[in-house]
Fold these 4 entries.
Entry 1:
Amino acid sequence: MVFSRLSRVTKFGLLQGRYILHKDLLVETFLEQQKFKADEFQESNFSNVQLSWLPDVVRDFVLPAGFPSSVSDDYLEYMLLQFPTNVTGWICHALVTSSLLKSVGVGSSSGTAAAASAAAIRWVSKDGIGAVGRLIIGGRFGSLFDDDPKMWRMYADFIGSAGSIFDLSTQLYPDYFLPLASLGNLTKAVARGLKDPSFRVIQNHFAVSGNLGEIAAKEEVWEVAAQLLGLAMGIVILETPRFSTSYAFLASTWMAMRLLHLWLRYQSLSVLRFNSINLKRARILAKSHVLHSNVIGYVDCNRIESILSWQRFLKPRIVFGVSLEEMTGGDRSVSMVKMLLKLYAKEKYVLVVNNQQKKDFEVFVSVKVGAMSLSVLRCVWQTLWLHQNWDVEADFFGQLKQSLTELEGRFQNFMEQLEGAGWDTHQLSLKVPKELSIEEIDAD
């Protein structure tokens, strides 16, 4: 008898749903929570002792994927000290805000500091609500930025532009300053949550000599110089007489400058030439090899790559993390599952074409325990071959078998051509979807 175990993986535990291939039925027997073995964390005793009381959902939110093995030993200790450091810094920010508002005359007409203090509270509340956006982005979506930093950097500017619209609206509706300014800060904080980590990935791309610190320092020089020039030009524009009398002139000028800003941002991201392979570039490369038996270089591929497109909307559609029951169309018969497991015995994933999707070509993929980034790349190559050769009237399993034969015969050449074209085949930016994984266990 063979057990096929479908596992839901978290960073600190393994939730398993076991399917037993028994007689003629695929039977889901039980769920169990299995903690990872303690010896996997022998080098992280500090981390375990300090965070053992935290619920898994909290640890997943505040710590990187794979913690503690994915970070250096001093990571947690540094972050625990950095947190109160930042808290005291923001307390100082709140106190200083009141003084700044007093210095520009807020509250002076009443002869007291009450108005200034109230304004400071509103201002700091605005900042606090905005900080929620960065908290959500960092906690829930931190794993996204390594795969496609160009896309997220561009979306950060789109979202930041929307936040600025709320800020502009405060002049029209001063009575609603706090909600409008808070929405603006929240939106811009979300944008910053997308911008900062994605730009760090871009900085790391620049640091080919391991000089990340110097790259970051020089980028700061460029940014400050641009800030000073922009502020100076902004002051000149604001001193134009029409700005004090015409809100429409202010809004139209902002809109023109923002559109120019977005266009320049897109152009700057378009010139980036990553030699790493993410899902977008993997699709382009696999399609080129399937159709023409060659691959394009990373310069041409980056030019073809669509910066704004989300992977989930690209064609053909690849759906990762699909359960065995979904892959078989709800059929709990054991025969189809056995055929799939036998067919993909040499691969670290199982892939089927969704025949129920009549409009667009779509594949379902479930990875096996032990799958790596190379497995994802093999899966993409097979998908592109199937997309080019699939016949809805032909034998289902026969076509899957043929695609695997093609994969086995041509994938090595594909990898050799990638290396020859300058692609980094040792550090693939292809994350293995480990929320669901299949493990086959031989049992009596």
Note: Residues 154 and 266 are 7 Å apart (CA to CA).
Entry 2:
Amino acid sequence: MFRFCYKSVPLPFQSCRNVGISLTHLLFLQIAPVFPKSLSSKTSLAPKIDFPPNNTSLDGHFIVSYLRKSWGLSPENALFVSERVKIKTLEKPEAVLRLFREYGFAETHISKILRYFPRLLLADSEKTVLPKFEFFKSIGISSPDLVVAISRNPRLLSQSLEKSIVPFYDVIKRELPVQKVVKIFGLSSWRFFSKEAQSNFGPNISTLKEVGVPNSSIVYLLVHSHLSFILQQNSEKFRENAAKVVGMGFNPSLLSFSNALQVISLLSKSKWEEKIKLYKKCGWTEHEILLAFRKSPLIMLLAEKNVVTKMSFFVNKMGLQPSDVARTPEALKYSLGNRIIPRCSVIQALLLKGLITKKIPLSTVLKSSEKYFLDTFVLKYQQGIPQLSSIFAGKTSLAELGLGFESTSGEKQV
């Protein structure tokens, strides 16, 4: 293959005295079960605080201090949040804060959620937040999974339970096993659909099932937020794209089908033709391009500069033919500086020193695990080339050893 030529969080008490908040109002933290019983509307989470008539909102400095000490925000984030909401009373913020703590959210989770969703400070904990928590509990999501889901996607709390969350759940529970539904809600950073997109979701999942895509691949599309958009597409266009991918020879039972569907869904006809021209310019035939696409669909999403730079290295410095790279298209997805050059430099050094003589497939060089490559090509020949570990680590170049790659014209390049 190779043709080498070589805690507790007190409120700011001083500020509280200035606005007439009693110490009793601050004692709202308590130990509670991970999933508490529904909080009765008769139970006041934090008593209403009265302010002087001439105050339409709390003092900005007080709010910043409150957000830092009670919600765990940094000074910068506390200022950011305080500028985006006008708080007239601490009743709602304290009620929400208490609810989060009762459900097992740590200060780090709470501060992150508030940073991305400041209007949470104005939410009615019992009418908007608690019902969502109770719904997730009712479908089997545990406290740790709930914390993970909402911390990853705080805007989940801004979604309507009746208009977005429940309809979405009703669709996926019909299509997927219960445990998969829990995984999607509890472990993904799912972004909920618009009403229009939701109408396409069910038909699109049905299309995948019709062509033979297994549930595991459907879940893969769902739990990866960068792929989930595919299922939101217009159902007719989606069916057309799925048929196109099947027609290109992809096996629906393999994960590569989902990746190919992603590519076909993202690239317009003109963009697809541009990618074909790019790889032809690199020396691949159209047949080789399609074969490479079947092996590694995501190569069609690589930037032109990325592809050209790596192909130039493989062909001009390693002495490979373009067809050699086409047979191992995954090679184009690896980092040039962190993987390709260090590993190829090790192989080149071994060949030039005569420590190995057989051709090493490009797939073995780049796709093998770190441990396998280290054991097979570095540690094994350490005595013959003491600098081999340093070459592999990218600390020593072949030029420093008086070695180098040779171009296809036979001219040594370093």
Note: The two ends are 21 Å apart (CA to CA).
Entry 3:
Amino acid sequence: MILNTATPVALLDIVHASEVRPNFPPCLANNFYGIFGQQSVFKISDFACLELLPNSVGEGSVVPLYLPEDGPQQLVWIQESFIDNSLRTPEYEAEVANFVDWLVPEEHITYPDGRAVLFEGGKPAPASLVYRTANSGVVAVADQGAAHTLSTRLPRFWKALPIPTKPVSYLPVPETVIEQVRDILVSLRFDALVAGIVNRISVEQMHKDIRYHTNEDGTSGIASRHSFHHGSRIAAKWLKTQFEDAGAACSFMPFLEGFAPNVICSDTVLIFGHYGSRGSFGLERAPGGNDDASGTISILNVARRIKQTGITFRTNVELVVFAGEEQGLLGSKAYVKELRMRVANIVLMVQADMLAYHVPDEPPQLGLARFIGTPEVTQLVANISAIYSPELTVGFTVVCCSDHQSFHEQGYPATHLFERAGPIADPMYHNSGDLSDRPGYDLNQVRSICKVQFATLLHAAGFDLPEGVNLEELD
């Protein structure tokens, strides 16, 4: 949506993420700003660059960008999550309509130039709609702080993702790295030791962990794990202690002022989730029992099982839980930047985000990323699921854009594990009722997906049992 008839300062070129190629012309490749809602965003200076695109690239959107010097400068991508039609209730559609009424200049003109008002810290600031589709858009606000404030105004199934102010590198996964994954795929066979290790993951322990995380047991005092809330600090300290009790060496990684830290536990095979949460608009409570305490407890119970068995890995392994996912993958982006600076060699990484819910009458499922990620890693996970968790129905999901995307953009092989081979169907998604004690919340499904994640780690990293210990002696 164009706000005025002034000369544009730039053009936003928006194409599907799957269309990005290593042979993109430099005028595009050097002006890449990231992937948002499966859309790759470039900021270019003229239309002539678009004529250099390969013929194989499909259609996209080219948006003239108007940013007056005295107006908003921070661009924010807003996106509706990929949700099942069952979640499109009249109440929800009213939320979306009210948000659009507030944001669209023709219907809510507060500033003379057609900008809506965003209240940040009690002070009014302008917010201008730059681009809009039925389920996404680009908004210009004053700064990154205003971008985080904007996220509090969104409808329940929407996210606000700040677009960087400078171009970022887009690094395709090197063929040599993909070949390593292919080698694991070719050699993959059922391993009785792997089965013996992963089959003893405890649902009972997961139940204790999730109830602490959501404060359903009344002991943690965590009202919210939103990255700005003090409850997220409690969760971070508890997670660090639990991982360390399981034998890991852990550290906090601060990345932005005001945000809870990443918890990094020791580097070439990674499994990770995010421990932040989001609740209902206007309510402090954000238990995040499914999104993403389910993924967090999966990783925590992998760590516990590693200690119980005494196994050692032949390749370095890292277990990570990120903060800042709900505000735009901020924790994982900061961590990937650090990995790139130290030229880390990563074999693969597997993200667990939302594992616990399935629709009544549907079987336990595992949804794998259709667009964002490395197909070979996704295929490896699918094959491992068939071997070690055959109770899961495996398929693709269009749900996207969790922390694995940060790694995918920087040339690391990655994939995402999700609870459903389809769109989001959890009615408590981004809701203060996201607890474990409710219909459809299934810790047995979490355990089954956890087995897949752990078995992938064991096959990718390689492992050895303690000397003198055999399969029968594994507890």
Note: Residues 130 and 421 are 33 Å apart (CA to CA).
Entry 4:
Amino acid sequence: MEPNDPRHKAVPSSFCRAYCLDGLDDQKDNSSSLAGGAGYSVSNNQNLKNNTTLTNKRSSFGYPTCLFRVTSTSDGRLYALRRIDSAGCVSHKIIQNVMNMWMSKSRSDNVQHRTNNHRSCLFQHPGVVAWYKCFISQRAVFFVHQFHVGAVTLKERFFDPNYNMNNASTGSSNAADLRLPLDPGPGVPLPESLIWSCLTQLISAISAIHRSNLAVRTLQLNHILVTRDGGPSATSSPSSISEMNGNSASLFPKLRFRINCLGIVDILEYETRKSLEDLQMEDMRSLGCLILSMTTGTEVTINDITLRNTNSMSPSQQHQQQQRIMEMLNQYSNFVRQHYSRDLHSLMEALVNPTVVPPVIENVARSMTMRIMEEMDGAHSCMDGMNGALAGLYESGRALRLMLKLAFVNERPEFGIDKNWSESGDCYILKLFRDFGKCCGVLVTVVGICE
């Protein structure tokens, strides 16, 4: 943002170098752009410069929200700062209670990580976006989360029809990093290998949260961040969903999925919170909705598969609404049964069926043992590739240092009359080694040095 941008006033003084991450393009979905998350690809720079007013749009949390990438003045690190206005129900006591709840539940699992990392977060897991703190300032509530460079929401990445068009117009390099070689496109069912990869990562995070007697409460498409860890690429494109599902998972780059916005709903709805059992049951329903959304290419939320406002409805109206829900679920179920494996269809049915209680996260994890092993194999392959690339860079650095040392020593004018540097001297071997590296091209190729 420009130095005279009035949005700087919306950021507390303990942070600097603020950059507004809210998507101001009217063509974008409001809930995706505002509720997106702690890491966001920065685009639409011209629109951000032209707009000098503070956005006052409501996010999926029901309050006016602004999202900034900021730099902390205490440690100099980047964070995602979410400002929520008009949250009069939030007090310092509520914030402290919720933060203590998340901190105490995860303390025993994260002692080692807290020792190695001076930035203490409330709940640490590879499948969640780290939440550091919450505070009240300027009559607004602020949430500080980890900032993931180049991350986009799952909704924007696979369900926003304007995603590829906007990235092409802005020339975003982050978009190119997240583009799949066999990209199904927005609003198209995702390949099964990608769905299983997403589920295994999310279930690992949900299991850790539920074991700590907590609930996620933000399992929606616009609250899951997607980043790329790297992986192989493919050159051919499939012609159908079945062909995509028949291909190996190695055709797709390794995508990382993280649950975002932890603790926000707990604070905003502290006075009206439900029991832990009900909240965890809603998490499992929401997980089933995620499977439905990814397999059908249509966004499905928990409100679409559950009865709402039953107190103000007559029995006939409730029956009609339940009939519509069952018809919709039957259509989705038939589609999933035709295009995906029996395991994925059975898991989806168990989670979204409104007539039965959804299974707990431990039972879901047990039923996915083989899929989890495949995901571990992919993760190990990705780590092997990264270690190989790192080893190559390390060897390149060694060769570069060696060439620079030889360049400082060889052919100095003051050594011209020294017999040790003559063709029969002891130091002449250094010249031969330097010339050998240049002639065979080994050192030149490794370090990229040319004469």
Note: Strands lie at 15-20, 65-72, 78-85, 131-137, 140-146, 152-153, 224-230, 254-259.
